Fold this protein.
Amino acid sequence: MRTPVKLMSGKVLDVDAEAEAYLRASGLDYTIVRLGGLSDQPADGSAVLSPDINAYSQITRADMASLNVKCAEDDKTVKKTLAAYDPSRVGFLALFGHRSVPVP
């Protein structure tokens, strides 16, 4: 069964998965940060990086930038795939009965 995100994203998620696999196989250091969606709302600093790559929420552009800087400065994120997650923001998937995955 295809989720609402997959239905609306078409082949974009498949191409993203291919790009991630290529990067992992490259031998380069990397950090992949997945996000659910970006908003122009003011940042509130509640966004986090989750090891649960199924965590999904909208995130502000400013919070996303801050999380990317944290990744660049933290060697523990190298060769990891993380989700940018903001538990204070409810995404549009709530309309479909989807609940954001809590951060462990």
